[in-house]
Design goal:
Blueprint (H helix, E strand, L loop, with lengths): L12 E9 L5 E5 L2 E5 L7 E9 L4 E10 L25 H18 L23 E8 L5 E3 L20 H16 L14 E8 L6 E7 L7 H11 L3 E8 L11 E7 L3 E5 L2 E5 L9 H15 L6 E5 L5 H7 L4 E6 L2 H13 L5 E5 L2 H10 L6 E4 L8 H10 L3 E6 L2 H13 L2 E9 L9 E8 L10
Parallel strand pairs: 3-5, 9-10, 14-15, 14-17, 15-16, 17-18
Antiparallel strand pairs: 1-2, 1-4, 2-3, 4-5, 6-7, 6-8, 8-9, 10-11, 12-13, 18-20, 19-20
Bound molecules: S-adenosyl-L-homocysteine.
């Protein structure tokens, strides 16, 4: 039997009705059962679409003209929304974004974890889902007239878009980037060119402490020296009296990694301060720090509520970064043990514990998947284990150690619903019961969703078997 041919041809223009959304936010419409994925199309819409890619079982199209618009369609406020790769959901009402994220988590729980019965709550959104990011790292290039431009890369490329503002950035960051661009242009600082690895100015990084108003700017150059250093520093200080830290970082490698190994303080402090809840954090140029502190607070409050600490517990916080969750938990636990693979992050975690007079949190450098099994073999039996792994989820040896340690509760924080659902299945099979999952919108206007979930150990029978 010959294979059925796809019912559409490349470059053909068709009219399509959309019925669904992918997790990336693309509209899905079908032609005789053959799905076409179309960015910026919404369910319920009818539109003209140009078919641009035809594969055996599915194809891709681009949206030409919306004939019947969804009520959830909104005008994206960003001028470069469709060019820039940063946001995917600005054309969708915020309510729809939150619903879509909840559904994404539900689907993963159902299809991957076979956990359809577990409640997945409505996504906790932001009151104002704009200008939430506290950190920007922006590449610098040359305009056609020979000036400097600072902007994000065009989707799937390294062309720099000339842009004035990024609507999900803290306004201070936007204004600082623009000021540094203008000042660097005034002093004829050459932009770095990836093609021939020549030039000077590579990136401008700005971070703002949203609760303190502290601003740090990092100027990243290929060259060891930043030309006109003193004049540039003075002009930045004149423009931004509340700048706290002006830093120069040298990156002379051919790499996509933004910062290099050498960091010089040009003026001010070597870190800025921010607070989440009543905990203070010193943030150095290279420290990992959550980019949306408002929602981080919502996420941690939920984690804390799930942990339900009474003060006598030993808690393990695996993948602890600079100790953000650990320090939140420490105030209500007997002891917290944090594990993190990046040594400087552990140094920061220790400093942050001191800064907050927290004495019952200890931090260790290592792989969570190695350290927990070792602790388990040494007889450590934590009451609560918190994990917050990167996108690939937890390693199986870590999950096994967690199962062996038999904590009362596990709090699993995740930035990837698919690996979360996979790992919850393993923990369920190992004797835990997932109580609920709470999605939190840490990255409005983008397709990312963060979750916190709560597991309890099933009761042991008298013969030691799990019931
Ligand atoms: N809980 C922290 C950080 C979460 S990000 C916060 O909320 O701020 C995930 C962290 O896991 C990163 O800091 C990363 O460096 C760390 N990590 C990645 N792989 C790891 C591993 N195998 N073992 C321990 N930590 C790891």
């Amino acid at each position: 039997m010959s294979k059925p041919q796809p019912p559409v041809n490349k470059n053909e223009t068709i009219e399509l009705t959309f019925e669904d959304l992918t997790h990336e936010g693309n509209g899905v419409g079908k032609v005789n059962g053959y799905p076409l994925f179309v960015p910026y199309a919404l369910p319920g819409e009818k539109a003209q679409v140009k078919v641009v890619k035809v594969k055996k079982n599915f194809g891709f199209g681009i949206l030409l003209d919306v004939k019947e618009a969804s009520q959830e369609r909104v005008d994206p406020p960003c001028d470069v929304y469709e060019k820039c790769g940063g946001c995917q959901l600005q054309h969708m009402s915020y309510k729809m974004q939150l619903d879509m994220k909840q559904k994404q988590v539900k689907d993963a729980m159902h299809k991957i974890g076979h956990l359809s019965h577990v409640p997945v709550h409505p996504t906790i959104g932001m009151e104002d889902p704009w200008r939430y990011r506290n950190k920007v790292q922006i590449p610098v290039g040359e305009t056609e007239e020979g000036g400097l431009k600072a902007g994000f890369y065009r989707k799937r490329s390294h062309d720099i878009i000339d842009m004035d503002t990024c609507v999900i950035q803290d306004e201070h960051n936007d204004r600082m980037v623009e000021a540094v661009r203008r000042i660097a242009e005034k002093y004829s600082i050459e932009p770095y060119k990836e093609e021939n690895h020549r030039g000077v100015l590579r990136h401008i990084m700005v971070r703002t402490g949203q609760t303190t108003g502290d601003i740090m700017v990092v100027i990243i150059t290929k060259t060891k020296k930043l030309p006109h250093q003193e004049a540039i520093v003075q002009e930045i200080r004149d423009t931004f009296p509340n700048v706290k830290s002006i830093i120069h970082n040298v990156n002379n490698k051919r790499t996509n990694v933004i910062m290099g190994d050498q960091t010089n303080i040009l003026w001010g402090d070597k870190y800025i301060v921010d607070t989440i809840g009543d905990i203070r954090f010193n943030i150095s140029p290279k420290s990992f720090y959550q980019v949306n502190p408002t929602q981080t607070k919502a996420l941690y409050d939920q984690a804390l509520q799930y942990a339900n600490l009474k003060g006598h517990e030993t808690v393990v916080d695996a993948y602890c970064g600079i100790g953000t969750i650990s320090l939140f938990l420490a105030k209500q636990a007997k002891k917290v043990l944090g594990v993190e693979i990046v040594a400087p992050a552990v140094d920061d975690a220790k400093k942050n514990a001191k800064l907050n007079n927290i004495e019952n949190a200890e931090f260790y450098v290592g792989e969570a998947e190695s350290l927990l099994p070792w602790w388990q073999s040494q007889g450590l039996r934590p009451d609560v284990i918190v994990v917050d792994p990167p996108r690939k989820g937890c390693d199986e040896s870590l999950l096994n150690a967690m199962i062996q340690m038999q904590p009362e509760k596990i709090v699993y924080v995740s930035c990837n619903p698919s690996t979360l659902a996979r790992d919850l299945r393993i923990l369920e099979d190992g004797g835990f019961e997932t109580q609920e999952v709470q999605p939190v919108d840490m990255f409005p206007q983008t397709g990312h969703v963060e979750c916190v979930s709560h597991l309890r150990r099933k009761n042991n029978n008298s013969d030691g078997r799990l019931s």
